[in-house]
Amino acid sequence: METQYVRDLTVNELRDMLREIMLELLVEVSGGDPDVGLELRPEVVEELLKAQRENRRTVSHQQLMSELGLDA
Fold first, then answer.
1. Cα gap 10→12, rounded to integer Å
2. H, E, C per residue of the chain
3. pLDDT digits (tens, 9 = 90+) for 2-26
4. What residues contact 14, with CB distance under 8 A and at least 6 apart?
Protein backbone atom coordinates (compact mmCIF):
# COMPACT_ATOMS: atom_id res chain seq x y z
CA MET A 1 0.00 0.00 0.00
CA GLU A 2 1.35 3.40 -0.98
CA THR A 3 1.87 5.93 1.82
CA GLN A 4 -0.42 8.93 1.60
CA TYR A 5 0.36 12.21 3.33
CA VAL A 6 -2.04 14.81 4.70
CA ARG A 7 -0.25 17.44 2.62
CA ASP A 8 -1.44 15.57 -0.51
CA LEU A 9 -5.14 15.72 0.45
CA THR A 10 -7.57 18.28 -0.84
CA VAL A 11 -9.46 20.34 1.73
CA ASN A 12 -12.61 18.30 1.01
CA GLU A 13 -10.76 15.01 1.41
CA LEU A 14 -9.35 16.17 4.74
CA ARG A 15 -12.80 17.30 5.93
CA ASP A 16 -14.29 13.94 4.93
CA MET A 17 -11.53 12.12 6.78
CA LEU A 18 -12.04 14.23 9.91
CA ARG A 19 -15.81 13.66 9.81
CA GLU A 20 -15.24 9.92 9.54
CA ILE A 21 -12.80 9.96 12.46
CA MET A 22 -15.18 12.01 14.61
CA LEU A 23 -18.06 9.65 13.90
CA GLU A 24 -15.91 6.64 14.78
CA LEU A 25 -14.87 8.33 18.03
CA LEU A 26 -18.47 9.20 18.92
CA VAL A 27 -19.57 5.62 18.36
CA GLU A 28 -16.59 4.32 20.33
CA VAL A 29 -17.11 6.69 23.28
CA SER A 30 -20.86 6.15 23.40
CA GLY A 31 -20.37 2.41 23.39
CA GLY A 32 -22.20 1.89 20.11
CA ASP A 33 -24.92 3.58 18.11
CA PRO A 34 -25.13 7.29 19.03
CA ASP A 35 -28.90 7.19 18.44
CA VAL A 36 -29.55 4.49 21.04
CA GLY A 37 -32.24 5.65 23.42
CA LEU A 38 -33.62 8.32 21.11
CA GLU A 39 -37.23 8.10 19.99
CA LEU A 40 -38.74 8.86 16.59
CA ARG A 41 -41.43 11.50 16.37
CA PRO A 42 -44.91 9.96 15.85
CA GLU A 43 -45.21 11.44 12.34
CA VAL A 44 -41.92 9.79 11.35
CA VAL A 45 -43.10 6.42 12.70
CA GLU A 46 -46.34 6.77 10.74
CA GLU A 47 -44.49 7.64 7.52
CA LEU A 48 -42.19 4.63 7.95
CA LEU A 49 -45.15 2.31 8.55
CA LYS A 50 -46.96 3.76 5.53
CA ALA A 51 -43.87 3.21 3.37
CA GLN A 52 -43.64 -0.37 4.60
CA ARG A 53 -47.32 -1.05 3.82
CA GLU A 54 -46.88 0.38 0.32
CA ASN A 55 -43.67 -1.61 -0.25
CA ARG A 56 -41.82 1.55 -1.23
CA ARG A 57 -38.32 1.22 -2.65
CA THR A 58 -35.63 2.09 -0.13
CA VAL A 59 -31.98 2.88 -0.72
CA SER A 60 -29.00 3.19 1.56
CA HIS A 61 -27.56 6.58 2.46
CA GLN A 62 -24.48 5.73 0.40
CA GLN A 63 -26.56 4.83 -2.66
CA LEU A 64 -28.66 7.99 -2.35
CA MET A 65 -25.56 10.18 -2.11
CA SER A 66 -24.19 8.46 -5.22
CA GLU A 67 -27.46 8.91 -7.14
CA LEU A 68 -27.46 12.61 -6.25
CA GLY A 69 -23.84 12.97 -7.33
CA LEU A 70 -22.75 13.88 -3.81
CA ASP A 71 -20.27 11.07 -3.25
CA ALA A 72 -16.61 11.95 -3.18
1. 5
2. CCCCCHHHCCHHHHHHHHHHHHHHHHHHHHCCCCCCCCCCCHHHHHHHHHHHHCCCCCCCHHHHHHHCCCCC
3. 888 889 999 999 999 999 999 888 7
4. 6
Alpha-carbon radius of gyration of the chain: 18
| Positive or negative torsion for Cα 49, 60, 14, 23 | positive
Q: For residue range 29-61, what is the model confidence (pLDDT) as tens digits?
A: 777 776 778 899 999 999 989 988 998 887 888
Q: Output 21-29 pairs: Cβ under 8 A, ≥24 positions apart.
A: none
What's the whole-model pTM score?
Answer: 0.41
